[in-house]
Amino acid sequence: xxxxxxxxxxYRFSTIDVSQSQPFxxxxxxxxxxxxxxxxxxWCHIGGYMSSxxxxxxxxxxxLCDNKMDDNCVWSSPHCKIHKHYMCDxxxxxxxxxxxxxxxxxxxxxxxxxxxxxxxxSIPLNYPVAWINDGDEDCRDGSDEREDWPTCKTTKxxxxxxxxxx
Length: 166
Known about the structure:
Strand order of the largest sheet: 1-2
Number of strands: 8
Oligomer: single chain
Largest sheet: 2 strands, antiparallel
């Protein structure tokens, strides 16, 4: 087992296991502070400092972000684990297409927002009703956690607003 220290940022170092010839550091800190916009998909506080996380730093089991948003992942099927924000976005990330065919994608808000984790470009997308007031700020502006979302009187569940004409 051979280790080498590498600079991850101006003030941080990480230990990399070079004997296994893995492409990333063991704690994935080399996947933070990305300046390449094609790789950086999430901005969050890491150790109290604003930083970016590359797409390779998502769903690793290591919680890089202070708010753990980088590891907010779901199994959309027994064969596919993806970041929550790649669900219901109109792009098939899973070979079995479960990220778009999941039950959670059948009940979407009519409101759109820019999700915390980017997919290629940051465009406003509808999001699942299940994300409303779930404790995670899924929208960059926090609109999914607003307290004024309408709820059903009997179940206290959130209502889906259908576009007019349906």
